[in-house]
Design brief:
The N and C termini lie close together (6 Å). A hairpin with a 2-residue loop joins strand 6 and strand 7 (179-180). A five-stranded mixed sheet has the order 2-3-1-5-4. A two-stranded antiparallel sheet has the order 6-7. With 240 residues, the protein is of the alpha+beta class. It is globular, with a radius of gyration of 17 Å. The relative contact order is 0.19. It has helices at residues 7-14, 23-35, 49-52, 111-122, 164-173, 181-194, 200-217, and strands at residues 42-46, 60-77, 88-105, 128-136, 142-151, 175-176, 179-180. The chain is built from seven helices and seven strands.
Length: 240
């Protein structure tokens, strides 16, 4: 879907009036990012769906920590996993604290093509600000620089400081062309667990969403069945 630029078509179905970046604007952003590239290999830092659905061909994958940013459901969305009538929430990196996630090291010959796909995936509406962040290992030793997508706190879709009850209801009820916010939340929680990463705030949200589903449907749900499911790109296809 990323290679065919079909994400825009899905967004248009869920949120016809949403203003998107053009391909030219995205590529200009990518060129600007690469112009400030630090020495060494290019890494990509994943903190949400990039952990469990990277769709990245990489030479190496490592669990890493970045400082100065934390994982937060602070991006309001009206497409892909939400609609205009029932907006959802997606993860972004907001200022403060630290964050553990998955880091992917790109082959030099693949940097341009892999990042072009990544920009189509993450930079659809311009709510993210891509930044170079320093990666640290379990001993807090730096081992490289990665691209990470942080939130633009001045963007209209920024939802930092949202009341917890509102956030839980959005996560529990919103869905769009790529599936539900609840599925995104539960998949991220399960992937963090599988990688030995503990995120108390995300786990609390997952527990509250699960409880709301139990109240509504009469039974506890580990996850909402996704509307769109397939294998990773390395295996031959992808959920984008």
């Amino acid at each position: 879907m990323l290679e065919r630029a079909s994400i825009e078509a899905l967004i248009a179905i869920d949120s016809p009036g949403l203003e998107l970046l053009t391909e030219a604007q995205r590529m200009a952003s990518l060129r600007e990012m690469l112009a400030t590239r630090p020495p060494g290999d290019v890494w990509v830092f994943g903190y949400g769906s990039l952990i469990w659905n990277s769709a990245i061909d990489s030479l190496e994958r490592r669990i890493a920590r970045i400082d100065g940013w934390h994982r937060s459901f602070c991006l309001s969305i009206t497409a892909l996993r939400g609609t205009v009538d029932r907006p959802g929430l997606m993860l972004a990196l907001d200022r403060g604290g630290s964050c553990h996630g998955a880091a992917y090291r790109l082959a030099e010959e693949d940097v341009e093509c892999e990042l072009q796909l990544l920009w189509r995936r993450e930079m659809a509406c311009g709510a993210y600000v891509p930044r170079w962040v320093q990666l640290k290992d379990n001993e807090s030793e730096p081992f490289g620089w990665a691209i990470a997508f942080t939130i633009d706190a001045d963007h209209p879709q920024y939802a930092g400081g949202l009341d917890e009850a509102v956030a839980v209801r959005r996560l529990a009820t919103a869905s769009g062309g790529l599936g539900s916010c609840a599925d995104y939340l539960f998949r991220t929680r399960d992937s963090l667990h599988a990688n030995g990463i503990h995120d108390p705030q995300l786990e609390r949200l997952a527990s509250l969403v699960n409880a709301l589903h139990a109240e509504k449907f009469g039974s506890s749900q580990k996850a909402v069945p996704p509307a769109y499911r397939c294998r990773s790109r390395v295996q031959g296809s992808a959920e984008r």
